[in-house]
Write a structure and sequence with these properties.
Blueprint lengths: L1 H24 L6 H4 L23 H5 L3 H13 L7 H17 L7 H10 L7 H11 L4 H15 L7 H13 L4 H14 L8 H7 L10 H15 L13 H4 L1 H49 L1
Helix pairs in contact: 4-6, 4-7, 4-9, 8-9, 8-10, 11-14, 12-14
Pfam families: TerB
InterPro entries: DjlA_N, TerB-like
Protein name: DnaJ domain-containing protein
Length: 303
């Protein structure tokens, strides 16, 4: 009986083996696209060379793709809320975008892309509450980071020396969406209000000293801009640096930033006035030269 069962099992195995061989030899079951490169699960969908990725990212998805792209769009709300941007505000914006690009773990998120987001968000494409909710979700457990962002927004808004109502409204809304505690918000608000209550008094000599320019140095607008950028970069606070997480702007950089900006505006006005004087002097010299040529030509006529 056992011999019969073994014979039957052998016949069955032989039959299955032959069936499998026939199946493998059947060209109808082979996919030349799959087997030519050895990838059995290759996608045989025809490629659309006009759009090889099939689905393009939308602008909204690009903004919401990263913690810093979202933050760039949020910052844009304060930047464009008063339809103007002063030199200090422009420099602070430039510096924080540089810090964000350096801090980002996404190698594709460059400073230029962050600048593009800020520029295009003059006309908002995503609701502020949605942006803030996404940012809160991405910074869960990082309350102090969001607090530093709110503090920076005040520095940005006060860059021209005055907090406009439109800027204040935007910052209040952002702080609320960021779930900032009232006491913390009021502390920042009061500190900036007190700091900017009085205008800095400064003369030309003090302004020159801040920019390390002697009386004999000729003031050049391009050189002033370069020095201004370097001083702001050296002085500003990187809000993403952990060593600054518990340090306020007043503790580290705010007063100095105000002094640099005041000195810059004084020296810029002086450079422009000197440039006008030089222009007038050159016009006078040119006119005098023409008179001399005319006199010389007249003398020639007298011979």
């Amino acid at each position: 009986m056992e011999i019969v069962l073994l014979l039957i099992a052998g016949v069955v195995i032989y039959f299955l083996y032959n069936t499998l061989q026939d199946y493998l030899k059947n060209s109808l079951h082979q996919n030349p696209q799959n087997t030519s490169f050895g990838f059995g699960n290759a996608d045989n969908t025809p490629i659309n060379f006009d759009n090889p990725y099939q689905v393009e990212d939308t602008w909204e998805s690009k903004i919401k793709s990263n913690e810093f792209s979202i933050l760039a769009a949020i910052i844009a709300r304060v930047v464009w809320s008063d339809d103007k941007i002063c030199p200090l505000e422009k420099q602070l914006l430039d510096e924080i975008l540089s810090d964000m690009a350096a801090e980002s773990k996404n190698p594709k998120l460059s400073k230029e892309e962050l600048e593009e987001i800020v520029e295009k968000e003059k006309t908002p494409s995503v609701e502020l509450d949605e942006l803030c909710e996404n940012y809160v979700a991405l910074t869960k457990g990082e309350y102090k980071k969001r607090l530093k962002v709110v503090e920076f927004l005040f520095a940005l808004a006060y860059a021209d020396g005055k907090l406009e109502d439109s800027e204040q409204e935007q910052i209040i809304d952002i702080a609320a969406y960021f779930e900032i505690v009232n006491d913390d918000f009021n502390s920042i608000y009061n500190a900036f209000e007190k700091e900017y209550a009085d205008e800095i008094e400064m003369d030309t000599q003090q302004a020159r000293a801040i920019f390390d320019i002697t009386d004999t140095n000729k003031l050049d607008k391009a050189s002033l801009n370069e020095k201004y950028h370097a001083l702001i970069k050296q002085t500003k606070q990187n809000i993403f640096d952990n060593k600054n997480i518990n340090k306020s702007f007043q503790d580290t950089s705010l007063t100095r930033l105000k002094e640099i900006d005041k000195a810059y505006l004084i020296l810029l006005d002086l450079a422009e006035s000197q440039g006008q004087d030089v222009g007038k002097q050159e016009e006078g010299n040119e006119s005098e030269g023409q008179d001399i040529k005319q006199d010389q030509s007249r003398k020639g006529w007298d011979f």
